[in-house]
Amino acid sequence: MSTSPPPLPTPEHLTRAARDDLAALGFPAPAWLPALTGPGPADVAEVAIVGAGQSGLIAAAALKWDGLTDIRIFDGAAPGAEGPWTTFARMQTLRSPKTQVGSEFNVPNLSVRRWYESRHGAQAWADLPAIPRTEWKAYLDWYAAVFDLPVRHGSEVLDVAPEGALVALTVRREGRIERHLARTVVLATGLDGAGAWRVPTFVSDALPRDRYDHSNGPIDFERLRGARIGILGHGASAFDNAITALRTGAASVDLCFRRPRLPRINPHRALENAALMTHYSDLADETRWRIARFFRRQDQPPPLRTFETALAQPGLRLRPATPWLGLRERDGAIEVDTPAGPLVFDHLILATGMAVDLAARPELATLHDKVALWGERFRPAPEEADERLASLPYLDRHFAFLPRTADDAWVARVFAFNVSSIVSHGPHSTSISGHRHALPRLVRGVERRLLLDAEGGLLPFLADYAVPELHVADDFEARLSGCAAPQVQA
Ligand SMILES: Cc1cc2nc3c(=O)[nH]c(=O)nc-3n(C[C@H](O)[C@H](O)[C@H](O)COP(=O)(O)OP(=O)(O)OC[C@H]3O[C@@H](n4cnc5c(N)ncnc54)[C@H](O)[C@@H]3O)c2cc1C
């Protein structure tokens, strides 16, 4: 006898079903963190999270599930503009395979699949080659609503500094400066969280600012209608920007890169397995360093669909073995020197990734020179030296910073769940495929730090615990004593 599958929930029903699932699984756990004791400020967050992209949200959900009750999430962006998804990400679909997700904590009604099916049907999900970018963002917004996560938008964190046994955050919100105190801080600040998007100095020194853009920034493509565009780089963003420029009416795009041919293999996929992503931080320093160097040299190819879409655009020229050797403005255009002779453009797009410069980050103003770096903790063989990797923080196995000197022990209350962690924890902690495995390490570390900092309050916490389990009638004590000592009739 064949049975038809149960009907799919509507979007409204899915929200209720997801919340019912959470309740069935004991969400949230009872509060467990002892209050701060002694004199001191009263308004102190248990965890302050900087960044409400996918990492900040999922971390907040997990910490809330585990019984933390005062989690504050700050994001400089407006609602809907968190992360890259609706701002500078220009691909149609995610690069991650649609099955490699982990934000749902094994609860089907929290999954992006169920979310998508509730809106578009089961067949639409089955037919999807990859998750559409804007749908992923809409799913994250829904996810934050299901968990009722308190995001403070338009709140740019300008500094993170010690304040006794606490951490103080300086926040700019609507032009005003606020101060927030927290017991622990998670930096979920994304792919540029260890510096800034990199514009080579031979470009920024030679050209006025309106003649170039970084691929991961806002670009006014309308202004580039009819323009001859030179793109430097061959990563996925280079192709995404080429497609957008040509579709918006650019005359031509020359996509230039140093390599003689595009990489064909994506070695990142080989790392995306449970064992490596779960235990990465237990690997020897030498292994982690070598893997990080390997990925510096082995780029990944653009996704096949992106590549094919780009090649189908009239006006695209791929130029392998074409590094830019120098450039200048000439006769109103930009002349770029290459080994094959000069190329002439009207505008440049730099798909040149990220520069590591902790001091350039506002939120690291106080912290950047107080944390241990790989260059101080690990000495590679001279032929394996790498200045960029050496300037990344050497994090503990739970993403916490380690202090450079004992005076700055407070930095261990700050956790770098962002690109700073790529040598210590591998390149996939904050990506969609990494959360399932990496997030538990972060959560354990934050909770451990909170517990150890609150150790002195544990006995008073136990003594004050007053949740009755045996509910008895008011006269029960009297009746009980009556039983224990039966009255003797005179
Ligand atoms: C074009 C593009 C495509 C990508 N595609 C994929 C993909 O398909 N799959 C995948 O797994 N990954 C992809 N990535 C990587 C992607 O960036 C991450 O997986 C994802 O965005 C990481 O989430 P996150 O929350 O860690 O960081 P983000 O999503 O970058 O969020 C960081 C947040 O921190 C906020 N913030 C930063 N500094 C401050 C501050 N000082 N004060 C307040 N707020 C601050 C930002 O406003 C931002 O909202 C892509 C990246 C790019 C650039």
Any overview of this molecule?
- The protein is α/β, with parallel strands linked by helices and 490 residues long.
- It has two domains: 11-194 and 356-458, FAD/NAD(P)-binding domain, CATH 3.50.50; 199-263 and 299-352, FAD/NAD(P)-binding domain (3-Layer(bba) Sandwich), CATH 3.50.50.
- Helices cover 31% and strands 17% of the residues.
- It has 17 helices and 17 strands.
- It has helices spanning 11-24, 54-65, 112-120, 122-127, 133-146, 201-204, 236-248, 268-271, 274-279, 285-297, 304-311, 374-377, 387-390, 422-425, 435-453, 458-464, 476-484; strands spanning 44-50, 71-74, 151-152, 155-163, 166-173, 176-187, 195-197, 212-214, 228-232, 252-256, 316-319, 326-330, 333-337, 343-345, 347-350, 354-356, 414-416.
- Strands 1, 2, 3, 4, 5, 6 and 17 form a seven-stranded mixed β-sheet that branches. Strands 8-15-9-10-11 form a five-stranded parallel β-sheet, covered by helices on one side.
- A hairpin with a 2-residue loop joins strand 4 and strand 5 (166-173).
- Helix 2 crosses helix 15 (435-453).
- The longest helix has 19 residues, at 435-453.
- The radius of gyration is 27 Å and the shape is globular.
- The termini are far apart.
- The model has no long low-confidence stretch (mean pLDDT 94).
